[in-house]
């Protein structure tokens, strides 16, 4: 899953330290009282720190806070910047430039079939988790579809762009691409629903779970009004429900998350062998993955690790795209870490790296999990030390 960076155009480094404390407290599923108890301080002290009324100007106190929140003190100080993956940063800048050229034709209009082939290739590259390669391909693809102005291809190209940017920690830019997808849908109910999947993902990555919940539920309800829709469109509806469930879990509403997941499960059992032109990957196994990830988001890591072993034994597990399996395993590593099972967390990370290396090596959120596992009980478990070196956490 995407990283939960903040929105509103303010980067983590620009936030006051009190707001950084509040953000990490929420991510760790703690109330102010819980944090206060672990620090052996009052709830009033925590509240004043988070509001900036009480300054945090003593490093030992910052270290103590960081230890309880299980993060590097440098994150609270706003000095921490993960190193860019080789070959990725310049490519992201090129994608940003291509999005800035919206509406400006850069080359002769390509034939629709050729563009359709390129869009399909981009999605396959994404699903195989070949992110550095996709970064290089997307600027030219965006120029092509923006020149041709074919709604279906615009929506698909913007969606895969948004999904990649969210993966790489560029949530603001991912939101822009998702919003472009929604605009390109031009009111078409099915295209708008597929675009809403990307909108939900980007909003969740920005930490705007309630907005993501509202957007995905509304889009799903609009699509579900026609009971005669073909299976591939019901798959879009089910995907929207899963996105909504994850948003509900992230906002602290576990009951709503469970309700939405059950609705998605009801759709999944009715679908068999449908074509998937909208790139949803929806089905019974996807529902089970969402249950685990929602449990992690909600704060019930114990339930997540209990469900996990049965999922990877299912026949449909290996049929899922590498991207999906790799991202899920990173979330599972987070769950094992939460329950204090460092071996389980290390095993999940190593498995994720074997399935989809770029999921582990290119994503800032995965890098954070690796750092937490490596730091939790030195020396790092087998395999994690190697990953920590590969992603630049050790020198």
Automatic annotation (TrEMBL):
The organism of origin for this protein: Micromonospora avicenniae
Annotated HTH cro/C1-type domain residues: 21-76
Record-given protein name: Transcriptional regulator, contains XRE-family HTH domain
GO molecular function: DNA binding
Pfam short name (any one): HTH_31
CDD domains per the UniProt record, alphabetical: HTH_XRE
